[in-house]
Amino acid sequence: MHNYNLAAWQNSRTQAQGVGNAKGSWSEPKLLDSFRSSPLNPDHFEQKILQAYVQLAMTPEQTNGTRTTTLAWFGSVEIRLTEMPRSEDGQSYIPPFWLEVYSHDIGETIDSCGCFEFNETELADAADVLHEYMAGVQ
User: Fold this and answer.
1) What pTM, to 2 d.p., does this model score?
2) Buried b / exposed e along 2-28 (16+ C-beta atoms within 10 A)
């Protein structure tokens, strides 16, 4: 799995996400039915990640240049895929795509996986992140 230093990125993500209500508490969105009804199948997770990847193309950029789509919610835990803006020189050692398991209760990423192009290995690594989290909540 690709574990890169994400401190600066996570800080910008936390500020950009501002999803609390007027009282400052987090709402609890429903778990997507496709995750509730599916077995813990890596192929299913890979399919959901690829669907989210395609959905990013239709997602508007946030003020910090990122695009984010949510795969599922589990109480206050959000599974999301984020595309980072490309560097000006076109080269980057930080993957442009990040799958995160993010807890809004604690305001931190529980687990994450960075991907450059979602090749077979990267997709399997990302699916493992989801599988590990789902196995823990079942």
Assistant:
1) 0.70
2) eeeebeebbebbeeebeeeeeeeeeee
